[in-house]
Q: What sequence folds into this?
């Protein structure tokens, strides 16, 4: 299969790709852009977070932006 036909995403090293969104929302962003329905998108995001053992993590629903969280200090890097 030629590379341009592959369903591949880029994974950035910075944990705050979209700092105003939660970890789960960041994970679900790709399917969202591709038009996947909300329920399926959320289900896939949970599945992927559980795969890397973050599914039940308190950070799964947390944003990484100080503005989004309302605190004046940045979120700690993990």
A:
């Amino acid at each position: 299969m030629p590379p341009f036909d592959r369903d591949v995403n880029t994974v950035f090293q910075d944990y705050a790709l979209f700092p105003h969104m939660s970890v789960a929302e960041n994970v679900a962003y790709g399917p969202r852009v591709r038009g996947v329905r909300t329920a399926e998108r959320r289900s896939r995001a949970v599945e992927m977070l559980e795969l890397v053992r973050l599914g039940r993590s308190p950070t799964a629903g947390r944003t990484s932006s100080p503005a989004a969280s309302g605190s004046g200090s940045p979120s700690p890097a993990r």
